[in-house]
Design a protein that fits this description.
single chain, globular, two-stranded parallel ribbon, 17% strand, eight-stranded parallel sheet, 41% helix
Length: 286
């Protein structure tokens, strides 16, 4: 049995679909029965557990051959990441109690970076799970191509997309969530000892200019990128309701300055940017 957290999201869902396609039994770890219904209909066992309930998670992981772990995203954490620290501790406790044969943990490119930034939350997760006496794989993907869903509205409305990634001709390591989920499912089915790191990016790196060009082809209209000056970020993010924009700003700095990067040689995914953006546009346009 393979227990999958985050199954209602893009990556967790892709993991589950890949395992089911391989004929493997899947346990969907969800917060409510309603969220598990569609997975139950696909033949999954359903376990109810909140990430803030270590005991419930331990029960959800109990008897599993392997567990896929995701830390819920928090783009506006409090200083020092107290929210992430509490959840990381719960996850570690649950795994230590359930003792599955192996764990695959979704981490991120740049989890090894020493500079303060938003992705330090996943560094905390790696550090905690790295102390477990069981096989753990940390899967570190690049920037998700699906993040470009936020660019659809400005691309349609004005033809100009504000870009925090800069300079506009700098290639960024991006990857489709379908590739992340497929690789995670493969890793869950492997046998290994100790801890290991597996890094993943798409078939090729993508510049902001190329993002705009791809949107232009799909929308059939001119689309361009416009640099958002660094001095404006804090005000813009605060206006969007963020209480603590600095970690997010530092993360983007890391991509732009090149210190958020893979630690080794990353594997290559198969899904091209245009495939991902085409699906995103079809969902978010009439």
């Amino acid at each position: 049995m393979y227990a999958v957290t985050g199954i209602t999201g893009k990556v967790g869902g892709a993991v589950a679909r890949a395992l089911l396609s391989a004929g493997q039994p899947v346990r969907a770890v969800v917060r409510s029965a309603d969220k598990g219904l569609r997975w139950a209909q696909q033949g999954c066992e359903v376990a109810l557990a909140e990430v803030d309930d270590a005991q419930a998670m331990a029960q959800a992981f109990s008897g599993a051959e392997a567990v896929f772990i995701m830390l819920p995203s928090n783009f506006d954490p409090s200083p020092g990441f107290p929210e992430a620290r509490a959840l990381v501790d719960n996850i570690r406790q649950a795994l230590q109690c359930a003792r599955p044969s192996k764990v695959v943990c979704l981490s991120t490119i740049g989890a090894q970076a020493t500079q303060p930034n938003l992705l330090n939350q996943l560094q905390l997760l790696e550090q905690a799970l790295g102390t477990l006496d069981m096989p753990v794989t940390f899967l570190r993907p690049g920037w998700f191509m699906e993040n470009s869903v936020w660019d659809i509205a400005p691309a349609i409305e004005s033809g100009v997309i504000p870009s925090f990634l800069q300079p506009l001709d700098k290639p960024v390591p991006m990857v489709a969530t379908a590739d992340v989920g497929r690789l995670a499912a493969e890793l869950l089915q492997e046998t290994w000892q100790g801890q290991r790191i597996v890094e993943l990016e798409g078939p090729r790196r993508i510049t902001p200019h190329e993002l705009a060009e791809t949107f232009a082809r799909l929308l059939g209209k001119p689309v361009s990128m416009s640099v958002v000056p660094r001095d404006n970020w804090h005000e813009l993010f605060s206006a969007q309701g963020m209480r603590n924009p600095l970690p997010r700003m530092q993360m983007i700095d890391g991509f732009n300055e090149g210190w958020i990067e893979f630690a080794g040689t990353a594997r290559k995914g198969q899904v091209e940017l245009e495939t991902v953006l085409k699906a995103c546009v079809s969902i978010h346009t009439p």
